[in-house]
Design goal:
Blueprint (H helix, E strand, L loop, with lengths): L1 H27 L5 H8 L5 E6 L5 H16 L6 E6 L6 H4 L3 H4 L2 E6 L2 E7 L6 H12 L10 H11 L5 E5 L6 H13 L4 E5 L20 E6 L10 E4 L9 H7 L5 E3 L7 H4 L4 E6 L5 H10 L8 E6 L11 H8 L6 E5 L9 E3 L6 H14 L8 H4 L5 H5 L2 H8 L12 E2 L4 H6 L4 E7 L4 H21 L6 E5 L4 H6 L7 E6 L2 E6 L5 H11 L5 E3 L2 H8 L7 H4 L2 E7 L5 H12 L6 E5 L1 H6 L10 E6 L7 E3 L6 H11 L12 H7 L2 E7 L3 H16 L5 E7 L6 H8 L10 E6 L4 E4 L8 H12 L7 E2 L14 H27 L2 H13 L6 H20 L1
Parallel strand pairs: 1-2, 5-6, 9-11, 10-11, 14-16, 15-16, 19-21, 20-21, 24-25
Antiparallel strand pairs: 1-3, 3-4, 5-7, 7-8, 10-12, 12-13, 15-17, 17-18, 20-22, 22-23, 24-26, 26-27, 27-28
Length: 847
């Protein structure tokens, strides 16, 4: 009943929200009156006016929304878009037309004259409205060419005068057309702009390979520098024709092709987020490489920037850019090239070491990178803008998150080397612990882990004080043989190697902190053997290893004064089993004799877990028999805080071993601290071993604690903690109430009564089915439908062949019998025969 009422409330809220959105949408629309209409049509600038009488279908509403949005956008372009509501301002010349005709037209005016009208079905979104409006305004300045002769004529007239920018777009009104027209509006005073929608090659016949019918294209013709008897040199733009990228091409035409980087660490091309090739060299030692760059750079004018980094004049510590600093800090053999693909990709870098002095190989390298890093939005819109299936992404929270942030540029991954079939064997035999991230580009978890993995690589290099990264990655889509050899069967997979052999596979949380913790723990012995008092004190003070206190909350140390004993052997076995998860050390001989007494240890063997961030239980002494099972259980449980904060990482661990949660919703006030002290004491005494005592932050409205209380229908009182016991078996909730007495002697009896069922429950966990947002694909039914369709088609062909072989006299007899029964003959009868099997198939599909 509660669930049903909740569903009704949610439905009403959704309907109300939709009504508000629709109302707001109508309110935001600004219709023009009769005076504004006359001003618009008499202007010397283009005006587009639509006359509105009544609302129609959803398509018409979408048109109106886009038209109003475009009207605001085009103000800066001095183009007026307006809508006249004929119900309020009756313009007799137009409003007298039929409503169905007015809905399909937008009228174009200039200087008081009606120039033409546009069909609303061609103005289907803001891109089509903006691009069409701009092209109407610039129709003389940006002509549409249909063939090579028209293009050649314009080029000939432009020689020694101005450069020409020519674009091939698939259709008028596309996002590419809009990007080109916006550039034409901004730079039309400097360049001549031409456009074509022809599917036939408008360039020379010999340039057919540059003309892709299904792709857009832009070419810069350098006619300004050409003599009257010379052809204009042509350069193809190799980026995306998009509003957010094409302006960078136009700006790049005005800046130097090649720049030299200094201690400022910046380049104009990189600030424009363009693809940039960086030459790392020493100019006086390798002068020939500069000449190669000078030859190559003009071929990529506007599409790629070139930067020369002379290591003789660059001081790493003065470069503010982490990206450049890391690149230059790599100990590589000079000279070499590094290419940043720019903002159209996910931040991955590419390196070239061999053949950098050969022009052809450098060109191939740049073109391969540009081809390799074509973003997803270069694909057909149907493949990537399919909003109909957006709910399928939302079924997976990780995929939904990566989809929502698809436009955010990922952190640079130059510090994680991209391995190939040749470099993979070389990498895993490197000194120390190396890690490889096996991934594919289309998997959401792989995409989500890219940035944390890159950040972890930087942190490890800083800890080790080295410029050589121990982390690398393999794209299994590009190198399936490498992933097969590494026995990779799922994505992502993170494997660790030492001396060429796999030593571990990380299966923890895909997060920088937890991955770093696992990696660093694998770099040290387990257990660490401490022989002297000095080493023991450094370890216990969290100074050795140096990263101890930053990534760990606790460690377990065993004191063994007698050297090798049964207890020490058991301790070593458990430490080896828990390697990568917990930090454990054996303090032996002088170390044990000097330090064991400080923690109350015996003269034989003592094991203690120290937690420097647990104020309620900083130390836990092991008192059980020395067996592997008991000692392992001790390490797992004692390493946790006695009263931890409940979070997404420890929740599954607690759920496995406990049957109830006693939760303190902490407000960080005096009463909350008092309640915490009492509950921590109860936890230390282990009065209720099946109950996990924990706390959640509820100090502000955006905390998970306050959100949970709302789900439990428990009111939160400010400056008062809330205590809730949740029994998983019965799914019952028990609220401690509004009492401010949080003493142990009061809380313990209340907990006992709730566990024994002597207190009425406050509520129950709400039952909720986590069903997918969309219906799953029934592939068997789909296959069955295809089979039925094929059967129907075969049946059609069989009937057709039978009819062809039928004698004429049989046709006559059939005609007569058909007439008697009131049926049609000839073609109608054939159509009837053909439709029967298909209709049967359709009926099955519908069922």
């Amino acid at each position: 009943m509660e669930l049903k009422m909740l569903s009704i409330q949610c439905l009403l809220l959704l309907l109300f929200a939709q009504l508000v959105l629709l109302t707001n949408g109508e309110a935001d629309r600004k219709y023009i009156n009769e005076i504004e209409f006359k001003e618009a049509i008499t202007s010397s600038q283009i005006s587009l006016i639509h006359f509105h009488i009544e609302n129609a279908n959803n398509e018409y509403q979408e048109f109106l929304n886009g038209f109003f949005e475009a009207s605001e956008y085009l103000v800066d372009f001095r183009i007026k878009l307006g809508v006249v509501d004929c119900n309020i301002n009756y313009i007799e010349e137009y409003c007298t037309q039929k409503p169905e005709d007015l809905r399909t037209k937008v009228f174009v005016f200039r200087d008081g004259k009606s120039l033409t009208d546009l069909a609303t079905d061609t103005l289907f979104d803001i891109n089509s409205i903006v691009s069409s409006s701009l092209h109407l305004a610039l129709l003389q300045e940006v002509p549409i060419v249909q063939n090579h002769d028209e293009l050649f004529t314009t080029l000939r007239k432009s020689r020694a005068k101005q450069d020409v920018i020519f674009a091939k777009v698939l259709a008028i009104g596309t996002p590419e057309h809009r990007a080109f027209m916006e550039a034409a509006f901004a730079y039309g005073h400097r360049y001549k702009f031409l456009v074509t929608t022809s599917s036939k090659n408008v360039l020379k016949e010999s340039d057919v390979e540059m003309w892709e019918e299904t792709r857009d294209g832009v070419w810069l013709f350098q006619c300004h520098q050409a003599l009257l008897n010379e052809e204009c040199k042509r350069i193809r733009y190799q980026g995306l024709l998009r509003v957010n990228e094409f302006p960078a091409f136009m700006k790049a035409l005005d800046i130097p092709l090649i720049s030299k980087i200094d201690n400022g660490g910046k380049s104009l091309h990189m600030e424009l987020k363009m693809p940039t090739v960086m030459l790392i060299t020493k100019c006086e030692k390798f002068p020939e490489i500069e000449k190669v760059i000078e030859q190559v750079s003009p071929m990529f004018l506007g599409s790629v920037g070139f930067v020369i980094v002379d290591m003789n004049f660059v001081e790493l510590q003065k470069i503010p850019s982490l990206k450049i600093k890391f690149l230059l800090g790599q100990q590589r053999k000079l000279p070499y090239l590094i290419m940043d693909p720019g903002h159209s990709y996910n931040g991955e870098f590419f390196e070239m070491h061999e053949g950098v002095t050969e022009v052809g190989k450098v060109i191939d390298f740049i073109e391969n990178v540009l081809g390799e890093t074509v973003p997803d939005d270069q694909l057909d819109d149907e493949e990537i803008n399919d909003d109909e299936n957006i709910e399928e992404l939302q079924d997976d929270p990780v995929q939904d998150a990566t989809y929502q942030e698809r436009s955010i540029q990922h952190l640079d991954t130059i510090h994680t080397e991209a391995l190939t079939d040749k470099t993979y064997p070389e990498f895993i035999v490197k000194k120390g612990l190396t890690t490889i991230f096996f991934h594919v580009k289309w998997d959401p978890r792989c995409l989500a882990f890219r940035e944390p993995y890159g950040l972890a690589a930087v942190e490890i290099m800083e800890i080790k004080r080295t410029n050589e990264s121990a982390l690398a990655r393999v794209n299994c889509f590009d190198w399936p043989d490498v992933c097969t050899k590494a026995n990779v069967t799922r994505y992502p997979t993170i494997k660790m190697y030492k001396k060429g052999k796999e030593v571990a596979e990380y299966k923890g949380v895909l997060d920088e902190f937890y991955f770093l913790k696992y990696y660093l723990l694998l770099t040290v012995n387990s257990p660490i053997v401490l022989m002297t008092e000095k080493k023991g004190r450094e370890f216990m003070d969290a100074k050795n290893p140096s990263w101890n206190s930053k990534y760990l909350d606790a460690f377990t140390i065993g004191f063994f004064p007698e050297g090798t004993t049964k207890e020490r052997l058991v301790f070593s076995e458990v430490a080896e089993e828990l390697r990568g998860q917990y930090l454990m050390a054996s303090c032996v001989k002088d170390c044990a004799k000097s330090l064991a007494g400080q923690i109350g240890g015996s003269v034989e063997a003592t094991v203690v877990t120290i937690k420097w961030e647990d104020v309620n239980q900083p130390e836990v002494l092991y008192t059980e028999p020395y067996t592997e099972e008991d000692l392992k259980k001790f390490v797992l449980e004692s390493s946790e805080k006695i009263m931890p904060e409940l979070n997404e990482v420890n929740f599954p661990f607690f759920m496995k071993k406990k049957s109830a949660f006693l939760m303190l919703f902490h407000g960080f006030d005096h009463y909350s601290e008092s309640a915490e002290e009492s509950l921590a004491e109860i936890a230390r005494e282990k009065t209720f071993p099946t109950v996990q005592i924990c706390w959640l932050d509820s100090s502000s409205s955006d905390t998970i604690g306050l959100h949970l209380l709302k789900q439990y229908d428990i009111e939160f009182v400010k400056f008062r903690p809330t205590i809730v016991l949740l029994d998983f078996k019965s799914q019952n909730l028990y609220h401690y109430g509004t009492s401010v007495d949080y003493r142990k002697k009061v809380l313990v009896p209340w907990i006992k009564k709730t566990l024994n069922g002597e207190i009425d429950r406050t509520g129950m966990l709400k039952e909720k089915k986590w069903t997918p947002l969309t219906t799953g694909y029934d592939f068997l039914s789909m296959i069955k439908a295809e089979e039925l369709t094929e059967m129907a088609q075969m049946e059609n062909r069989r009937f057709s062949r039978s009819a062809e072989r039928m004698p004429e006299k049989d046709d006559k007899i059939r005609e007569e019998s058909s007439e008697e029964e009131g049926l049609s003959t000839g073609e109608d009868n054939d159509n009837l025969l053909e439709d029967l099997p298909l209709n049967e198939a359709k009926r099955h599909i519908e069922l």
